[in-house]
Amino acid sequence: MSITNSIKDFKMEVNQALVDKAVALEPSLIKNTVKPIGLVTIEKGKEDWEITERKSIDELSNISLGKGQSVCIDFGDHHAGYVSFKLKPVGSPPDAPAHLRIKLGETLCEIAEDSSTYNGSISSSWIQEEFLHIDILPNTVSMPRRYAFRYMEIKVVDTSPKYEIVIEDVNCIAVSSADMSTVSPLTKISDDLIKMDKISLKTLQDCMHSVFEDGPKRDRRLWIGDLRLQAQANYYTFKNYDLVKRCLYLFAGLAQNEGRVGACLFIEPKLLVDDTALYDYSLFFISCLYDYYEETKDLTVLNDLWEVAYHQAQLALNRVDENGVVRDSDDWWCFLDWHDELNKQAGAQAILIYTLKQAKKLASILGDAERKEKLEKEIKKTTKGAINQLWDKEQGFFVSGNQKQVSWISQIWFVLAEVFDTDINGQILDNLLKVSPRVDLVTPYAYHHLIEALILNNRKAEALSCMRSYWGEMVKDGADCFWELYDPKNKYASPYGSRIINSYCHAWSCTPSYFIRKYFL
Amino acid sequence: MSITNSIKDFKMEVNQALVDKAVALEPSLIKNTVKPIGLVTIEKGKEDWEITERKSIDELSNISLGKGQSVCIDFGDHHAGYVSFKLKPVGSPPDAPAHLRIKLGETLCEIAEDSSTYNGSISSSWIQEEFLHIDILPNTVSMPRRYAFRYMEIKVVDTSPKYEIVIEDVNCIAVSSADMSTVSPLTKISDDLIKMDKISLKTLQDCMHSVFEDGPKRDRRLWIGDLRLQAQANYYTFKNYDLVKRCLYLFAGLAQNEGRVGACLFIEPKLLVDDTALYDYSLFFISCLYDYYEETKDLTVLNDLWEVAYHQAQLALNRVDENGVVRDSDDWWCFLDWHDELNKQAGAQAILIYTLKQAKKLASILGDAERKEKLEKEIKKTTKGAINQLWDKEQGFFVSGNQKQVSWISQIWFVLAEVFDTDINGQILDNLLKVSPRVDLVTPYAYHHLIEALILNNRKAEALSCMRSYWGEMVKDGADCFWELYDPKNKYASPYGSRIINSYCHAWSCTPSYFIRKYFL
């Protein structure tokens, strides 16, 4: 995710006791040395970049590279980690430095496309391309940055007419705080779901580091929207409860102005909440805590973080007008999905109701009768507001904003918020699939909520079909991990202006494992 | 220097006892922290790149740089060393890495010209330009490579729309094995010579590291042609005898096939002689040893290295034909100077005689009568050969090769070899200055020998005038150190196809201090 709004007069409100608990939970990373499996040649095919030739990795030491020559190394799967290799000169003693360009890509397009032409909306600094001078040869090159990649291209910008180089002993120290050996492999389901699960697991694994990251290529940060889905998938796979707990304490301990939970956190060089605030993301602190408690029954954490969670509901309610409806605005105040034209009002209203209900259950568990009552009142008010102001009975859809926009995500969130009963919710979902409003879903994050809504409203077959036509299509398109963005109808799309900047291992896309393991075994 | 010939079936012949003596003499480098003095703006002037604006370095911390913006930092003088600086983000917390391009230049053209258009004959890997990604901000960037530079430009390739960067605490740890505090400054001579001496000293200092390097930017290697002149300048300035001794032992201990002293040595990753052999450079081992003994009267070194020195004379004599003349060939067998059309035969013959005479004196010092006699015989034979076959009495010049080429450098070396007496030598020099043959001198290395020849033949006024019109002109052109290549008539020339690859602090250009301090005080 990459957003450029900032809250005014931003400051961080630190609760050191909570931060200390988070710091104590910092995981050790599991390191695995991974060797590449082959060499590939990438060329433009009829539709897209293709691998047109494969060679054994054993060939690498037979290839000497001079000025302008390159080799593309395939690690066989996606990894997040640290790369090293040996450079051996051949010919005369090296009489000039070796100057290399190294590109690392999660996908072929990142290797094959000319990154100098990138002119997208987010920083080109995310492109995994380095230029290195190696003064002394032979040498071992240990690249200091962590990369997310499957392919690594090494190109000789220049050596000298007197020598060439040979590359040997290419290694990746892959890192993650997820232990894949703890997850039982699936067997008794169809092969395509087994594959989908495997890719989901890999996606989640490569996003689990010191915190749950949104993507190991980009933004490499703890976003609460991603955290919520990662934690849910984690409960059915790696069961790394401490990492969820750590992230919850971090968000609670590092708040923004007025005690608002920020949309994302930075871990280095020091713990820091970003100045981005999003209406839905702050509310999702309640969801994350609710889900965590439901999974672990950990009352200590619930007691520690209840105040912060409840406060998010209070802050969100400040935006509710006299009719019980969340006020709309033109700025980047709520996320929901990456659709350019999406109006956020209805989705925000639904998420408010959804999280108020979770908060009410937490109040009940804690025996906090006063707040439970208050929340109940607000749930009624906002539910009434939603039905009176946003529900268009004639269309059978919720509308959003001044233009009364009908979007997929608005319907999905109102279904999840259970404003109506299962019958009406089912009708809304059927209607949605039939009518297919123009303002559709553009991210796996949004698709996740569609699948969840279908399953919870007795439409498992439709959910499965939808998973197959979305994540399944990504698998057919060669995904090693699930991608940040995917539109089966427009596979080269990017909201950022170029797909080479997209993240191809993205936390919010990892939930097929959650669905398969929770609902389809 | 940069040459691409290699000897066939190259192998290294190691004399470990001599190498061990060299290793024991490895100097500690003197480190000086240098701070930049200002910020400069470089623009294209009428003739060349110019500094059009200067600001105090104190302004640096007031400048925040966003995408595409840059700042050029002036260190006030040439340095060879290691650069570090602090990067501080301003604005929102950095939500993307900072991607920087850093150019370091000894001169303005290296900063101002687009290095991507470089298409010269030697490796572009020598261009001091780096691209860095800084993931964590704030941060201290300590660049691991050693650079030779006065100017450093830092350009932001990209940050993100949410933040910019401020650069602070820019430092250079300048390194050298020369101790400037041991050299007495000059006072009682004219200002232009004082300045010329100062620049020569800086040139020599910045070329003195673990060995005498040819240039700290390029090739950063021990070439024997450079060593000979550096050692001579060193005797009148830093008097670092151990460094000369170390280099002599290295050349003697790391020979090529047949015990030939190589043209240059590599120090890292291990001690290694290059596979380049040059007729004149191998013979200059004798000169280096002779000069060292004359300066130090160190008989131990002379005894240790006499065999190797004498052997170079023997190898060189293998190329002498029955007429006592060195056989010519078309390959890159002898250096002399960087003139494309230069025929090397006459110069090689003169250098053979010059070094045979030095070898004879060394044999005499060592009481090696047999070799002294043998050398005397060879001197007579080659001198006779030179006069009979190469001297054109009518023109008053020595000719070279099949085409009987008359070049400046051939005359100069025959004068230095004292084939004729001072009277005739004087006439040759006068004739040379008057006639000015087309195949002229193109490097300070060649000019050095002209100056030496003039001085030794009672033409000190002409020598001084020549120093002023050559090195003096470089000073006027803004040299901080003396350049590898300089043609006052064509200031943008480079034998490599682009002046951005030239070395602007070059060992063989440092000899004005030698001349001034030896002959003009």
Shape descriptor of chain A reads globular
- CATH domain class of the domain at 31-176 in chain A: Mainly Beta
- How can the largest sheet of chain A be summarized? 10 strands, antiparallel
Regarding quaternary structure, what we see is: homodimer
Q: What's the CATH superfamily of the domain at 31-176 in chain A, by name? A: Galactose-binding domain-like
* Helix/strand structural class of chain A: alpha+beta
Rounded mean pLDDT of chain A is 96
Helix content of chain A: 25-40%
How far is it from the N-terminal to the C-terminal residue of chain A, by CA? Answer: 32 Å
SS strand fraction of chain A: 15-25%
CATH architectural category of the domain at 31-176 in chain A: Sandwich
Low-confidence stretches of chain A: none
Tally of strands of chain A: 17
Which two chains have the most extensive interface, and how many residues on each?
A-B, 42 and 43 residues
CATH topology of the domain at 31-176 in chain A: Jelly Rolls
CA radius of gyration of chain A is: 25 Å
Tally of individual helices of chain A: 14
Domain Alpha-L-rhamnosidase six-hairpin glycosidase (chains A, B): 194-517
EC number (chains A, B): 3.2.1.40
Organism (chains A, B): Clostridium saccharoperbutylacetonicum N1-4(HMT)
Pfam families (chains A, B): Bac_rhamnosid6H (PF17389), Glyco_hydro_78_N (PF21104)
